[in-house]
Amino acid sequence: MAQGEPPPRDPVLAAPRDVVVLIAVLLVLTVMLGTVLVQAWPPPAGAKGGALHADRIRILFWVPGLLRDTRLFLVVASAGGLGALIHVLRSVYEYVGDRKLRRSWITMYLLEPFVGAILALVVYCVLRGGLTTSMASSSDINPYGVTAVAALVGMFSRQTVDKLRAVFNTLLTPPQDSPGEGLGRPGTSSDSCPDR
Question: Which residues in the chain land under pLDDT 70?
Fold first, then answer.
């Protein structure tokens, strides 16, 4: 290498062009999800007939008539995506600043907002389904609380998945055999069965 030439670029690391495109896409997604969040925000429960009245609203380039429940779904999905984008944008600027952003991570960064949105919807359905709260109509739901939970689920999607895995492993784990009351044949262990 001749004096004054820049060192060769590591092909594993993201090129400057990759970084610019990634940041542009993430910022466009942020603006779009923020716009959906604001435009889909449900009116106060008592306004215009409450939960049973479908209002025509503008969401980006779409003008549907949406019930309050549907608007809450859109708010939850957009807040989950925005929460994931908070995590992604922070991670990107740290790795870009340290010059350690790997090209193979770009797909993960682009998909993370969608994972956050879907995970927020799953958690919302679990909560609304009455697994952890009482049954409430959509007019009783505080959109600020739902939005906060959805954004946190999106921001901490890995931890949310780990917690859901732990909860459902506890709920769905078969009971241990009591001594002397084995379910298997004598001389066999229930641990030798493969997972199905």
Answer: 1-2, 4, 6-8, 45-53, 131-136, 177-196
CA angle 60/64/66 to nearest 5° reads: 110
d(CA 76, CA 36): 10
Q: List C-alpha distances in Å: 122 to 81, 129, 144, 153.
A: 13, 10, 18, 10
Please work out, in degrees rounded to the nearest 5, the angle formed at the alpha carbon of residue 46 by the alpha carbons of 124 and 67.
50
Q: What pLDDT score does 147 carry?
A: 94
Q: What is the pTM of this model?
A: 0.76
Spatial separation of the C-alpha atoms in residues 56 and 166, rounded to whole Å: 41
